[in-house]
Amino acid sequence: MLRHGIALTALLVALLASVASGQSAPVVVIDPGHDLRANPATEPISPGSSTRKIKDGGGTHGVVSGLTEAELNLRVALRLRTLLERAGVRVVMTRTETVATSIGNVARARIANRAGAALFLRIHADGSTDPSARGTHTLYPALRHGWTDDVYASSKRAARTVQSELVRALGFPDRGLQERSDFTGFNWADVPVVLVEMGFMTNATEDRLLATSGYQRRAAVGLCRGALRYLGRMTTACR
Ligand SMILES: [Zn+2]
Question: What is the 33 CA–ligand 1 centroid distance (Å)?
Fold first, then answer.
């Protein structure tokens, strides 16, 4: 009994020391898509590329709720931050308010690179000219030799766990995974990266649900579980 007590105390001391130093805690960079204002300036689609894309088109908005995508993304992101921190993960946010002109995708990727993110998790919601389009999907970088080799497999694995947990949490149709080579924020990332499209704000059903705090919480729980599963940690903390 005493021996167990001593072992337990030693374990607790080690745990507290690691939490205090923050050494063993992985970093997740949460990127709530867009901001108050779009950014029409352009930036290279990948390092050294002469192809340039607009920094931020501004995102979509809820057809019924009137909520902007930027605000929905942020609400889910802030809830996710709380859940991950409670689970012992260090969180870095690309923004914590919806008050400015979007910094663009190169800047977002640089935040993730500088933080040495174990996962760069980008949160978005979709828009379509087809009001019946609905469902959840997750995007990750396409394989480009000499370019995304280092993050392709890990990003794909993260996309799988995040997509499956997010679909389970929201209950929206599963639109699966998609590889993209044309995302500036992917091409500049040197760390595993995924971008979730939680649902369609141009679909009345999904917009109505995503605008509620209950569904924003569901989304955060799903993203937390997906991220922790990818990191090989217990997902029970995501409540
Ligand atoms: Zn978006």
Answer: 5
SS (H, E, C) the chain: CHHHHHHHHHHHHHHHHHHHHCCCCCEEEEEECCCCECEEEEEECCCCCCCEEEEECCCCECCCCCCEHHHHHHHHHHHHHHHHHHCCCEEEECCCCCCCECCCHHHHHHHHHHHCCCEEEEEEEECCCCCCCCCEEEEEECCCCCCCHHHHHHHHHHHHHHHHHHHHHHCCCEEEEEEECCCHHHHCCCCCEEEEEEEECCCHHHHHHHCCHHHHHHHHHHHHHHHHHHCCCCCCCCC
CA of 170 to the centre of ligand 1 (A): 18
User: Cα of 97 to ligand 1 centre, how many Å?
Assistant: 16
CA of 125 to the centre of ligand 1 (A): 5
d(CA 69, ligand 1 centre) in Å: 7
From the CA of 65, how far away is ligand 1's center (Å)?
A: 16
Per-residue pLDDT tens, the chain, 239 aa: give them.
555 555 555 555 555 545 554 457 999 999 999 999 999 999 999 999 999 999 999 999 999 999 999 999 999 999 999 999 999 999 999 999 999 999 999 999 999 999 999 999 999 999 999 999 999 999 999 998 878 888 999 999 999 999 999 999 999 999 999 999 999 999 999 999 999 999 999 999 999 999 999 999 999 999 999 999 999 999 998 98
